[in-house]
Every structure is written in structure tokens, then in C-alpha cells.
Design goal:
CATH topology of the largest domain: PmbA/TldD fold
Distance between the termini: 29 Å
CATH class of the largest domain: Alpha Beta
Helix content: 25-40%
CATH architecture of the largest domain: 2-Layer Sandwich
Order of helices and strands: HEEEHHEEEHHHEEEHE
Number of strands: 10
CATH superfamily of the largest domain: PmbA/TldD superfamily
Strand order of the largest sheet: 3-2-1-4-5-6
Radius of gyration: 24 Å
Length: about 350
């Protein structure tokens, strides 16, 4: 099967472009050093991120946190023996020492016939601009004001809302670069912003809490802070006065939040690690009906601005749109190269997890 053809990701300005190229050179140097030290194949990944979060509770500032992280991970194969190591220091000396540590681990490791880089024809040779990078130019005081607006909207919505666990705004941006000895070397920038709130309500001596949040790559697509607060209050009030049902058989309507966890459990059950360990109730379920005929579950990794979008997986394999469930039938498992080899199958480009699920009843 041919790899998808999509244009290279372009950061938003010259500074990001320069940083991306610098990180690519560091990855190339790490790969070269690994081969010098005896690796027959290898891959390396750099990730860097920075951002901040602010929290308020009952009108007061709780926390203001700034963070900045970077790491390089190197995986080497000596034959089919694997070793990996990581460092937060991107200097030449630290990289050389990290490669040496990974090679030392590999030399003492047990051979695994299923280990190794992905098959070369599966590698993404071009990666997509999925519009994932939208930094938010916001000062901490502005962020605090927004968090306060969110919490205030929740607390003022109804007298039954009498306490708060706080409201939080966070904004983070980062870059990741992945390369391997098959010639793959790609990277992209991304961002993630969120506003959340949690409050407590009381009625007739019964107390309940609930929450709401909004999250997006682009801050302009976040829900309004007041709206988040009001939804938090409504969800909390909805819990007050709840009661148990008598035993019965009846249709059950799950909220989107609960439905998400149910689908997450299903994805876990058809993921390669659980399948080859035989630690799943859906063993040998490919081609079998497990849902109503009307249900479709599709992976769509190339949706612009989506939180789960990625042009390639954690191994550099091109991500692809495909049906996981079609008309209630399991069409695809969720496999990395390693788990696919263990099962005698082909990778589905899902090293690192799933990439945007859409569900149609």
C-alpha cells in the first residue's frame, strides 16, 4: 500500500522553523553517533514544550505555574537486541553518553525476533500540515481573569452552588522531531489550551460535585469562560436529588463523557499489546460482529486542528484513515510494528495509540 502524500508541516514563523531544523540536526547527530557505536539500526525522538497554567478558587489565586521541558530518547538495535536511554541535555557530550548507555543495554538484552524498526515501505515519506500550532499570546493576569470569570459564572448561577474546587486555565505549545536510520526525519509544532471548572452543590443535606471543561488547539475555538462555568453549575445541579433505580431491563443512554470511556475500553481490548498477551475478551475478534449493525467507528488522523491528529505515529509510520468498526464488525485492530509482528500481521500505524475516533450510530 502506498503511503499518503501530504505536504510538510510549516511552523507559523521563522523562529519555529529555525528551531525545528536545529532539532532535526540534533536527531541526525544522535542517529549517526548510535551507528558509530555499533547500532545496526536506531531511532531518536526529541520533544520540547513550554507553557503555563493558573488556578483560582473562591475568588483567590491558587497557583500560577510555568513549565519548560525537553528530552531526547534514543533506541538502538544491535541485531535484534534492543536498548534505550534518554536525556534532558541536548549537548553533544550528553548525547554521546546517552547513546553509549542505550548500546550497553542492547548488548546485554535478550534477542527478540519481533523487535526492530518498522518495515521501510510503511514509513511516512512526507508529513502533513494539520494546522496543529496556534500559540496563545496571553499574560498570566489575563489568564487569571478568565479563570475567575469561569468560576464566578458557576457560583452565581444558583444558590445551591455553594462551594468550588476551582477553575483552571492552561496553555502549552511544543515541538517534536522523530528520526530513524531508515532515512525518516520529520517533526511538527502543536499547541493545546484549556479552561476547566469544578463546583459543589448542596440541597436537602445532600452534596454533589461536577465539572466541565473546554480544550482546543486554537484558543479561538475554546468555549466562552462563562459558558464553561454555567455548564459546570448545571451539571452539578443535575446530580442533586439523584436516586437509585429498582432492578430492571431497559435501554441506557450514556452521556458523551461516559461513552468515551466505554469506547476507550473497547480500543484497549483490540490493541496489539493486549491481543498478543491474550489479555482481552476480544481475542480473535477480527471480522466478528461486536456492535449493532448501525455502528461505525473510524480513525481519522488527519483532521485539521483536532486534538488527536498526527501525520505519523510514534515509529514514523504514516497514519491512515480506516474503519475500525464497520456495520458493527471489527475491521481493524490497533497495532504497532512490534505487536503486529507478534500477531503475524501488519502495523496499522498506531504506535503511541489511537488518532481521532469518530463514531456514527
Amino acid at each position: 500500500m502506498n503511503n499518503p502524500v501530504i505536504n510538510t508541516t510549516k511552523p507559523k514563523n521563522g523562529q519555529q522553523t529555525q528551531e525545528l531544523e536545529t532539532l532535526k540536526h540534533i536527531v541526525e547527530d544522535a542517529l549517526s553517533e548510535a551507528q558509530k557505536q555499533g547500532a545496526t539500526s536506531c531511532d531518536a525522538e526529541i520533544s520540547k514544550s513550554s507553557g503555563f497554567s493558573v488556578s483560582v478558587r473562591l475568588g483567590d489565586i491558587e497557583t500560577i505555574e510555568h513549565d519548560r521541558n525537553q528530552s531526547l530518547g534514543i533506541t538502538v538495535y544491535i541485531g535484534q537486541k534492543k536498548g534505550n536511554a534518554s536525556t534532558s541535555d541536548l549537548g553533544a557530550k550528553a548525547i554521546k553518553e546517552t547513546v553509549a548507555a542505550a548500546c550497553a543495554i542492547a548488548r546485554y538484552a535478550t534477542e527478540d525476533p519481533f523487535s526492530g524498526l518498522p518495515d521501510e515501505h510503511k514509513i511516512a515519506r512526507q508529513s502533513a500540515d494539520l494546522d496543529l500550532y496556534h500559540p496563545w499570546n496571553i499574560e498570566p493576569q489575563q489568564a487569571l481573569d478568565i479563570a475567575l470569570q469561569c468560576e464566578t459564572a458557576a457560583l452565581e448561577f444558583d444558590p445551591a452552588i455553594n462551594n468550588s474546587e476551582g477553575a483552571t486555565l492552561s496553555s502549552h505549545s511544543g515541538v517534536q522531531v522523530l528520526g530513524n536510520s531508515l532515512g525518516f526525519l520529520e517533526g511538527y509544532w502543536s499547541s493545546r489550551h484549556s479552561i476547566s471548572c469544578c463546583v459543589i452543590g448542596e440541597r436537602d443535606a445532600a452534596m454533589q460535585r461536577d465539572y466541565w471543561y473546554t480544550v482546543a488547539r486554537d484558543q479561538s475555538e475554546l468555549e466562552n469562560a462563562q459558558s464553561v462555568g454555567i455548564k459546570t453549575a448545571k451539571r452539578t445541579l443535575r446530580r442533586l436529588g439523584s436516586r437509585s433505580l429498582s432492578p430492571r431491563q431497559c435501554p441506557v443512554l450514556f452521556s458523551p463523557e461516559v461513552a468515551r470511556s466505554l469506547i476507550g475500553n473497547f480500543i484497549s481490548a483490540i490493541s496489539g499489546g493486549n491481543l498478543y498477551r491474550k489479555n482481552t475478551f476480544l481475542l480473535d475478534s477480527l471480522g466478528h460482529v461486536v456492535f449493532p449493525e448501525s455502528l461505525q467507528i473510524q480513525q481519522q488522523p488527519h483532521l485539521h486542528k483536532a486534538l488527536g491528529s498526527a501525520p505519523f505515529d510514534a515509529e514514523g509510520v504514516a497514519t491512515q484513515t480506516h474503519d475500525i468498526v464497520h456495520n458493527g464488525v471489527i475491521n481493524n485492530y490497533v497495532l504497532s510494528s512490534y505487536s503486529a509482528r507478534k500477531l503475524g500481521m501488519q502495523t496499522t500505524g498506531n504506535a503511541g495509540g489511537i488518532y481521532n475516533l469518530t463514531v456514527q450510530p
